[in-house]
Amino acid sequence: MFDPVIAPSGTLLGLLQRGRGDGTLHALTAPRAEALAALNHCVVHDPRHDWQVENRSLYYARLYLDLNGELDAVEAHLFDPEDVLDADESRTGLALAVLGHLASYGRLDALHLLRRYAAHGVNWAWALDELALRDDDAGLRSLALPVLARFPRDAELAAAVRDAFEPRPWRLWADDPRESVAARVRAAQERGSFDRWQRQLSSSGPRPGWSVRAVLDWADQGVERGVALHVPAARCLTAVAGPEDRPEIVEAARSGGEGARCTALRHLADGNDPEALDLIEAAVATGSTAVVEGAVSAFERMRSLAAVDRARGWVHRPDALGAAAGRVLACRGGARDRDLVLGALREAIRGEGPDAPTLWTLVDGAGRLGIACAAPVLRHIYRETASSHLRGRAARALAATDPSFAAGFAIECLWDCEETTREVAARHAETGDNRVVERLRRLAADPAEEDEVQTAVRSRFGPDAPAV
Asked: Which residue has the higher pLDDT, 226 or 12?
């Protein structure tokens, strides 16, 4: 999937793509045709950089309800000829998830569209999972024949049953009154259970009795196959290595193969070995890209005072280890490190922009350390980042550093696409704005809202809460 093109943050489309609360508020005051066009664009051209982590479906579904939006554009997208050519579930996953939420709100057109796509679409499994949570038994039973017809071979059917995210439809079909349906599904269930048992027996991973050398060799073999195994290999070393094995592990961390070196560095770092920090610094200077990444990752896992002290010396380095040092101080530094964390935050913005992965930890650190003068940078990240998760972290940091947050960004956060951001808003938004009280009450009554958000809302209405 190509990275999406995100419109400027000051436009209606850019706000909706980011999932910002202001996107909903602007859409509700914009001409309806313009708002629906922007909404449809977001749903059929998934704007998320990480579609498996970021939330948008409930956000867009609620806006369809508020606009009383038709689903013609979603239907055209799902049944476009490209559906046959592009089987990647990221092409249709957002649209199907939006339909699922709309179905839970009682939109029958969304429910019927999901059923139709489950019967005929390429990403049928996703649609079936949405229906498993929302459709009745009769609706699911009506899909048994078209779904089973997708599998001319029983082995493929067994794999589909075994890997199903929601088992409800398959359980219903296993008890179907039509014997041809029930017998085939039951056989597939039995075959799937046997396949899982057989895979466990044929595991090629570490076994009891392995030596340190065997574990390190296994990690190197993973590199040869293009599979990074140093993380599980380091766990294995913890189980098999004794004090007498330390020299061999230290030597592997200094000059071993790529997989062995990463494994040894992680093992030594996790054990706070006295040589770990020097070996990490040497690996960053002399290792391959994978070794540098492994060394930096091992360093960031260290919790010792020595690691934090070393981070203070490394934070000015213009390399990956310097960036990691900033993140270590953000996570485990103290009040004396505020200026260093703020400097790392500003440098990351200047060098990599508002979507840099390193910002996640640095933003959290700014909030944890209460760096008040970081608020302007945090507000910039909040407005400009395309990542709704990073924006949520910025909101939490602003709640801890910016006195204007409660009367500013916290209000729009009540409409944000991320439930964790809505929770922060529910705890902090000032209620002098009539929209806040109305929104809090709507969230409290919405069965689709997350429990944590509703708990935060109830804390504002409880007997000990300030007047709302």
From this structure: 12
Q: Which two tokens stand for residue 424?
A: 């922060």
In this structure, the number of other CB atoms found within 10 A of the CB of residue 32 comes to 12
Q: What is the pLDDT of residue 201?
A: 46
Q: Checking phi first, is residue 19 left (phi over 0); if not, alpha (psi -120 to 50) or beta?
A: left
How confident is the model at residue 163, as a pLDDT?
Answer: 87
Distance (Å) of CA 374 to CA 36, 107, 377, 402? 37, 45, 5, 9
**pLDDT > 70: percent of the chain:** 94
Residues of 190-199 as b/e, b for ≥16 C-beta within 10 angstroms? ebbeeeeeee
Q: Is the distance from CB of 215 to CB of 236 less than 8 angstroms? A: yes
pTM of the model: 0.90
Phi-psi region at 50: left, alpha or beta (left = phi > 0; alpha = psi -120 to 50): beta
Q: What Cα–Cα distance (Å) separates residue 136 from each residue in 61, 117, 147, 265?
A: 21, 17, 17, 54
Three-state DSSP at 105 gives coil
The number of residues in the chain equals 468
Q: Where are the alpha helices (DSSP H) in 135-176?
A: 137-141, 144-148, 154-163, 168-174
Looking at residue 267, its pLDDT comes to 96
> In Å, how far from its chain's centre is CA 265?
27
Amino acid at 397: A
Q: What is the pLDDT of residues 140-177, one digit of tens each?
A: 999 999 999 999 888 889 889 888 889 999 999 999 89
- Alpha helices, DSSP H, located in 226-337: 230-240, 246-255, 258-270, 276-286, 289-301, 305-314, 320-332
> Residue range 420-436: average pLDDT?
92
Mean predicted confidence (pLDDT) in 389-399: 97
For residues 359 and 348, the answer to whether their CB atoms sit within 8 Å is yes
Cβ(62)–Cβ(102) below 8 Å: no
CA distance 208 to 240: 9
Q: Phi first, then psi: what are they for 372, rounded to 5°?
A: -60, -40
Q: CA 374: distance to chain centroid?
A: 26
Question: What is the C-alpha to C-alpha distance for residues 275 and 249, in angstroms, rounded to an integer?
Answer: 11
Comparing CA positions, the residue from 347, 325, 336, 422 lying closest to residue 371 is 336
What is d(CA 246, CA 231) in angstroms, rounded to the nearest whole number? 18
R_g over Cα of the chain: 26
Cα–Cα nearest to 240, from 211, 260, 216, 200: 211
CA distance 382 to 405: 12
The token pair at 203 is 């595991």
Q: Are 345 and 337 in contact (CB under 8 A)?
A: no
Distance CA 234, CA 222 (A): 13
Reading the block at residue 184, the tokens are 């085939």
Smallest CA-to-CA distance from 384 within 17, 1, 98 is with 17
